[in-house]
Amino acid sequence: MQTTCHSISMNDHLCAVFLYCKSHQHQESNGVEYRQATPRHHSPTETSHSITTIAEKQHWQPVPAADMATTAAGLFGHQVDLNPGKNSRNKSKHCGHSLYKKNFHRPTFCHHCTDMLWGLFGQGYICEVCNFVTHERCLDNIITPCTTVAADRVQVFIPSKNITPENPVAHTWSEPGHYRKKFCNVCRRKLDDSLAFRCELCEYYAHATCLDFVVSNCVKCADYDANRNLEKMKFTHHWREGNLPANSRCALCKKSCVTSECLASMKCEWCWTTAHTGCYKSFSSECNLGPIRDLTIPPYAVSMPVPNATVRGDVTAKGQGGMPAKIPPRDTHVTPPPACKRTQEEPATRNTAMMMRTRFRRYQSISSIDSPTEVKGKEDGSEDGQLLRIYDGMTSVRRKSSHTVSVAKDASAVQVVEAAMRALHISDNPNLYYLAETSENESEGQERRIGDTEHAGQLSKQLGVKIPSLILRYQETKAKKGLIKVYPGLMKVPVEYVTVSITSYISVKEIIEMALHKFGLEDEDPDMFSLVELVIEHDIHEREMDRDECPWPQLIKARRNSLLQMRQTRYQLKRTDEKKPINAAQMFVGNLPINLSEFKYKYIIKHLLEEAGCPLFTSVGKVYVQYGAAIVAFEDHDAAITAYHVLKDATYEEKPVTLLFIPEIHIDCLRPEATPLLLFINVKSGGCQGIEVFDILSKMVNPYQVFNLCQGGPLPGLHAFSQLPEYRILICGGDGTVGWVLQCLDDVGQESVCSNPAIAILPLGTGNDLSRVLKWGGGYQQGDELFSFLQAIVDSEEVKLDRWTVIFETDQSKLIECDNKSNSSNSSSGNEDMPNMFVMNNYFSIGIDADLCLGFHMAREEKPEKFNSRLHNKGVYFRLGMRKLGRRTSCKELQKELRVEVDGKPIEIPSIEGMLILNISSWGGGADPWGVDSQDTTFKKCRHDDGLLELVGLTGVVHLGQIQSGLRTGIRLAQGANIRIWLNTDMPVQVDGEPWMQLAGQVVVCRSALQATMLKKSKLKIKRRNTEPALNSNDGQTSPRREQAKLVAMKSDEGGQV
């Protein structure tokens, strides 16, 4: 057996030598060189073929010693090079991957075509850096770039199609967690057992240790430009690789393109078109936002000067208090200071900054355990391997952020350098780098350099540690010149970038002149341009360089601190006469005292800002006195960020202030037939299912259309959409959430351009009776297809919902008695806290039903953490009902304690324990108390738009159970539009699930002047996503509202059955 393995290795070696010689014969024709792979450490059961495909020929060409000093300092990864001619001619056809042939001993799938790799030996190729796996037959078709070159391809540039280039966009990271059945977009490995982050906007996943290598290509959700010509503009797809939804099919070949075995296939983040990696290039670059384009607000119609992710203090923030950071000159290279400096006397800022530093250290310490590089080393290595901890300059040493690699104990210094470069995703000539022992001293000269003759096993013995810590360094040279890449920014020029030769004495002004000449803009005035330095890390840091700066000395000094940061730096031109955004940052300030004057609200906010010494707002916009909220505007965006960090910790009258930046929607940028969707999500509804729904829906539409009701309620969203002539609303929650939004719409909607938008419901509550009547279902279940739900909203029909006012008039004697009891008990609550008027949407009940609801409400108030599922909630109702059996309650013989008039006529009430007044045909989670009786000609069918209410009697708890199970219906008492009830004693009552004990008195239920427009799910069959040819066409527009209204009028039968 050993002889066989040895012969195989010899054959592989001979093949490698043969291919190496053949490649030198044809190196000018094919542009790709095959070399004998550097020996790597593998397990005894795994043998690697010694063939490696290299991205650039000059990458592996031997460098003469005499020329080493000239070339060493000129190669700064992607930014600095001394051989632009060779680079331009010898770009790898394998998208920067460093591929070598490998024997796979478990089922492995190609990341390009998703087919399995078949064979016994050398089934396919794998990239040494990003773990990209491919068939040999797919080598020439690879279009997925390696992480070493992906950052250079962020900028969209299609000059022939009039597509405006875009700058990199940073991701919005979630809290770290564990994500099952997902793959890291950096190292392409599964995330199952590793701590990972997820972008909340574009489904980009990354291990905690891979955050340094992420590509900042997130979707840009707010990109309004007043100077943009919309008629000539083309909105492009934003493709994201892997982690596709279940049952995804390729829109081109109609075959399944989803796989759970590897990171493969593509999905557009805007239109949700899915395709194979080899198919998506066949699509047009223009995106039409897909089947729900009428509901989605395109990013070019939204302006958001200060995104909420910038100020919320997530892991992307680098400055104090989570504020965006500006970059100091590179020769200092310290931690970037905040954009708006704060004084040392502000404890809130210091606490926030301390919290952010603690979070970073905690994530980095945890992530070092789950490092995929270390896992890879353990898989590839054996017990004789050597673990090494690699640091990227002194910056990573100070942050204690390292990457662990595994090499053979007899690995040479060059092989260890190559392993360190792979761990840091650096694709470059290893002869230009070396390793040194870690040192806290800033001086690079005092570090001990690892000798070329030392091997990995000696390092552990010499340093006296099990896992030696090493720093990857760049070779010290005395080169005085090099090349940098200069990008055109947002200018449209015929090339993607140009290379500019610089020396220690070349200033920014001269660089601008040379770049304009190479871009073909000789007639432009160089004084009208500036050079911008972009560092694309977790966040995008931008610094406008001084015209007298000399970048070359700064580059030489900066590389000592971080090689990776050097590779993440780019330079681009920017016109100095570009119009800065004139849109003011709008901030919602809420949770203030209600019913004050507008001047008083302005004074309160001004006083809170002046106390902290912060800049004041420019103006006060709309003031909502009934909600204690105001909209303030800041022309200076930095001042808005500073004010946010002051007000977010402020309190007024012992209540915390609610803050939220509000987007501005530009109507002139929307299509005439568009009806944008405003989404309200109650994240606490239905056992906190709203959190999952919020994450999913934020990726299906523009995130600035989605509002969390726990942050300011419905008011911020209604204000943002107040100028739109027509839009729709999706409420994700229970019946109580629907009532909450409708009530707020009643209060502020009359001041909006569209005062009565159509409303759809995604049921998240326990009962969800209104959503059942409107055919939206009884409750959302985890895994439900929400994209099909949004498509159903496009095809839904408008119906009317009657709304009713319930007025409670308590007897004066009862009020006096209640006041006496309140005063004797020194209670602060008086009769002014008793509800006296409600708007009813679903039903109103008196007696046994309200008694059970009140018991459930009190149990939930006592222990709210236990009420986190529908099953538990219904179980509580069942237990409360069983306790009522056999006991005499206050609702016994209810007919003796009340008197009822319907439309001015008294009605006779039989022996009952409860009474329901219904507006819809669903109650108690799907039951129909009114029922359907074709032989009963006395009463009409129960409908929600007929202007009538239905009175139903309940005989007891057993009767309730029979109605719930569908065995019986309620006792039909009456049907009318005006109901008056006299209560002789205190009774439990409830309105739309809100219960309380009502004092004796009079109850009046009358028709409200406000009628809601609801959306009812159509019976039309919804097409499957991404399988129809019309998906990417411009046809299939939704019918106009006028035609839809005619259809609703013809089909006015509501069919209120569950």
Briefly, what is this?
This protein is α+β, with helices and mostly antiparallel strands and 1058 residues long.
Could you characterize the architecture of this molecule?
The chain has 1058 residues and is of the alpha+beta class. It folds into seven domains: 220 residues, no CATH class; 58 residues, no CATH class; 105 residues, Ubiquitin-like (UB roll); 95 residues, Phosphatidylinositol 3-kinase Catalytic Subunit, Chain A, domain 1 (Ubiquitin-like (UB roll)); 81 residues, Alpha-Beta Plaits, CATH 3.30.70.330; 170 residues, Probable inorganic polyphosphate/atp-NAD kinase, domain 1 (Rossmann fold, 3-Layer(aba) Sandwich), CATH 3.40.50.10330; 165 residues, Tumour Suppressor Smad4 (Sandwich). Helix content is 25%, strand content 20%. It contains 27 helices and 45 strands. The strands form twelve sheets. The chain has a six-stranded antiparallel β-sheet. A hairpin with a 5-residue loop joins β4 and β5. α24 crosses α25. The radius of gyration is 34 Å and the shape is elongated. 44% of the residues are buried. The N terminus and C terminus are likely disordered.
Structural class: alpha+beta
* Unreliable segments of 5+ consecutive residues: 1-92, 156-163, 313-382, 822-834, 1025-1058
What is the strand arrangement across the widest sheet? 34-33-44-41-36-37
Give the N-terminus to C-terminus distance in angstroms.
72 Å
Beta-strand content: 15-25%
Number of alpha- plus pi-helical segments: 27
Broad shape: elongated
Number of strands: 45
Described by strand count, sense and barrel closure, the largest sheet is:
6 strands, antiparallel
Helicity, as a percent range: 25-40%
Structural domain count: 7
Mean pLDDT: 76
Radius of gyration: 34 Å
